[in-house]
Design a protein that fits this description.
The protein folds into three domains: 101 residues, no CATH class; 116 residues, Jelly Rolls (Sandwich), CATH 2.60.120; 114 residues, Sandwich (Jelly Rolls). The two termini are 13 Å apart. Strand 10 and strand 11 form a beta hairpin. Helix 1 runs antiparallel to helix 2. The relative contact order is 0.23. It is 12% helix and 51% strand. Strands 1, 3, 4, 26, 27 and 28 form a six-stranded antiparallel beta sheet that branches.
Length: 409
Amino acid sequence: MKLRLKIITFLLCLVASLSHAQVEKFNYKRSIDGVSDQWHKITLPVDIYGRVSSRLNDLRIYGITNENDTVEAPYLLKKLNGKHTTKEISFELMNVSQNAKGHYFTFKVASAETVDQISLDFNQENFDWKVQLEGSQDQQEWFTLVDDYRILSIKNPQTDYHFTKVSFPNATYSYYRLLIKTPDKPALKSAKVLKNDILKPVYNDYKIVKKAVSEDQKGHKTILDIDLEISVPVNYLQVEINEDFDFYRPVRIQYLSDSVKTEMGWHYNYKTIGTGILNSIENNAFSLDGNTLKKLRLIIENRDNEPLSIGKITAKGYQHELLARFTKTADYFLVYGGNVRMPSYDINHHTANIPANLAVLQLGKEEEIDHPEELKASPLFENKAWLWGIMILLIGMLGWFSFRMMGKE
């Protein structure tokens, strides 16, 4: 009987140590306050991104019950990156005409559908035109949608760029008349009448603590270095240019990937994460893949032009949410910052059953998880499989002793 009690005590201690070991795989934790329903939503704070892996696979929600058991709450990770769908509307090109103002193209849509963009493609490769777009129900009375809207195409050995999409507020007309204000005859190759449905992304705004501009006179380049307050994933970068004249400059976007200290000082390695064109037509906003970074560098190719005056810089990243299910009463906390795989939960396959409106839970302050050094009697116990094997063996011994005692009685 005493042996059986000792085995039971040992098993309980072993299970408790394994449960505690789950938490010790991670480096940080935050308490979760306000759990009252089965489903809740947690918005990840900005300062958590520098502590987790780039794939956010090292997030777990654990709880401690009144019986001191460790439970895990499953969650669905949601990136609020929005959604953009484009529907092509059937149309007929009815009339092509011209007068002193320019060249007209009249489109008739097949049905009374809402549209907000006309995409144009021309045989010409180099042009800079102003256009006017009007809408009408009967071709008698016309209403202006946009005027002096600029479309542009540049193609040469160094550049291949075009901006030929005419965007306007939602409109529902039967006829659309496009005036291209040029004496040259536009060779319209194709056109598309479109409706864009956009669910806007939800961003975190990042604080920029330093902006430094330098000129590479020999290379005809402007180098813009940007320091963020903390390491964060960047998905959106906008560069404002304080110039009144037209400009068109290729740009490379890089981030500091690592640094090495040498005898000559620190050497910094930058990796390119995006390219684009700074120009006087668009808003100069660039979409990025979300690399976690703290330092950005923009290299602007000036060629034979004077450097541009750099204005305001805006950096943002998509917000992330955890849609979590709580089935047991416990004190819950979020842990992160460990070398673990992405979790696999059943709720990932049943997203339609997650309620639409969820109460938001608040996270406490970040705490470091202690990792006490343990004396290792033998490398045998470094593998969890051995621990489970010992547990199975001890359970078998306990059953055998119990069976023998029952036989004696």
